[in-house]
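Quick note —
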Amino acid sequence: MSPNDRSMNMRWEKPGYQELRYGMEITMYISNR
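Predicted structure written out below.
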């Protein structure tokens, strides 16, 4: 199993966590500008 397949599987298992992480990264990026 390739690492890409594993990351896809994790994303499907926890879609909410993935979205929350992206939201935090975007918020930090904007606040640091």
